[in-house]
Amino acid sequence: MTKRERVLAALQGKPVDCVPAGFSLHFPKDKNSGEAGVQAHLTFFQETDTDLVKIMNENLVPNQGAIRTPEDWACIGPITRETPFIQKQLEFTKKILDRCDPDAYSLGTLHGITASAIHPIEADYGYDPVRTLLTEHLRANSAPVLDAMKRIADGMCQLAWGYKEAGVDGVYYAALGAETRWFTDEEFDRWIAPLDKLILSEIQKAGCHVFLHICKDGLNMERYRSYGDYCDVVNWGVYEVPYSLEEGKKLFPGKTLMGGLANRSGPLVEGTQEELAAAVAQVVETAGTQGFILGADCTLPTEIPTQRIRWVMEALRAL
Which Pfam families match (predicted)? Predict the structure, then answer.
């Protein structure tokens, strides 16, 4: 099987010659955009030899004005395919796809509605404070905030179609919002889920597979049960949430699961080659060889040696 054939078989729950795998990390600031960013991706893909090649996305919704009250969200304007940050991400994606392994399965990264909504002002407040601010503003006067979030969601839909035209096979959708320390279940269902599903359904319409990444810890995973109709693959923090692969199979029946390894500790980050190979074998034994893609809870440490990921690939192919 080629790498792409292996991933497609996993997505369909069919037998594979070996379990496919994919990992990603945030590249250093001087290597996450432009030609340096393109080369960093290509080097990472070549040195790790993963089946999936995931193109990172540091082209975020930009700051368009100070936001201190719910009404200030009106500063967020419409986002189209011609909006500079969308154009930059699509051009970046095309350059990488033109030069990376055509045998691999490609993913474009798309930040979900919660992450995309806070990106314009995250630098002004910091991560936890801006999450609190978004929650408080929605509770105080949801109309102008939701109007802005809808414009952002429309822009993410445009990015999804642009990704397809650029040539990616799938879209990696990074979802936030299920952390119980911010929204209640009812608030999540009212404010977040509809916009997430709007974008996810548009990714499907564009003809890309949907890799739903459920990010962060302290989650109520039940909030995502209804997302199963909008995705092909589900990835979450097995160790971070925590929520086991076995539990995930029950929550997302019939869906391909991705993950199995901790991303910031444990064998992948600090074990010997033998310990890592044993961990890989144990994950595969637990998850099975069909309908499964080996990965990590989330992005790996930026400084992790690529040789460690290569060890994972060698262990998988030796099983």
Answer: URO-D
